[in-house]
Amino acid sequence: MRKWVVGVAVAVSVLSAVPSFALNPGGDVMVLPVIGRFAGAGGTQWRTDVYVSNPFSPTQNVRLKFYRSGSAVLETTLTMGPFSSRTLPDIVLNTFGLDNAGGVLELLVEPGFTILARAVIYNSGNPAGQFGQGVPGLATRVLSRQAYLFGLSGIDGSRVNVGVTNPNDAPVEVSILVTDENNNSLHSRTVTVAAHGNVQYNDIFTTFGIAPRAGVRVSMGTADVLIYGYSSEVRNDTGDAIFNFGTSPNN
Question: What angle do CA 63, 136, 226 make, to 5 degrees?
């Protein structure tokens, strides 16, 4: 019996010494880099559902700020009880009353508290059926001045879109570098992203004049402010997409 107790104690001690590396994307300022409701290519009709969770106590008043591209910001408030979740289907129409708009969504609670959010952007009008992608909300506290994406492919029936969102109160210059898997430069440019704005490049191989290939890397960076960079790898035959958010190996 004593050997068993000692063995359990040692195992517990070892396990407790293992650090936890689970991603905690929540915070008091959450960023969804793009939401929208608009017509797309091939008869597609794009919509966005947003999911919000208050994972703790107490009740939270969650401010939703929709920074529409080229228009004034819209704002509303959700009151969420402890340990509760809310679903906001077709948020652009049902929450903000707009039939056709896109932009950046920020969710804010009192400093020191935490909220969680994610979105699903999907087509609802194409004869091929419904398809889309999940978009994680990330707190500004986990964002960095760099967004690094890798393993992107423009062959075998896929295309790649990349975008960058600026969650800051002033415009920011973002450098974009595209390289192959061996770090050979394929394209570079600098873009100015408006305050609380988004810039997206669809089908980067065509847009940037790069021969389609696999294993492509995209690095976005600023001098000293936070950004949310992402990619969307899309199947040309089905429209199905895989969303990735950029990480920061230097921070």
Answer: 75
Task: Quote the DSSP letter at residue 125.
Answer: S
Strands (E), 40-184: 45-54, 60-68, 74-80, 84-88, 101-108, 116-123, 131-136, 138-139, 146-152, 158-165, 172-179
Whether 24 contacts 86, CB under 8 Å: no
Q: Who's near 230: CB < 8 A, 6+ residues apart?
A: 33, 135, 147, 149, 162, 163, 164, 165, 243, 244, 245, 246
- Classify residue 157 as exposed, middle or buried by CB count within 10 Å of its CB (0-12, 13-18, 19+): exposed
Give the span between the Cα atoms of 133 and 221, in whole angstroms. Answer: 25
Q: How far apart are CA 64 and CA 30, in angstroms?
A: 10
pLDDT in tens, 139-190: 999 999 999 999 999 999 999 999 999 999 999 999 999 999 999 999 999 9
- Residue 191 tokens read as 């873009």
Instruction: Identify the structural domains of the chain with CATH numbers, from first to last.
Output: 24-142 (2.60.290.11), 143-251 (2.60.290.11)
Q: How far apart are CA 111 and CA 28, in angstroms?
A: 6
- Contact (Cβ atoms closer than 8 angstroms) between residue 178 and residue 149: no
pTM: 0.89
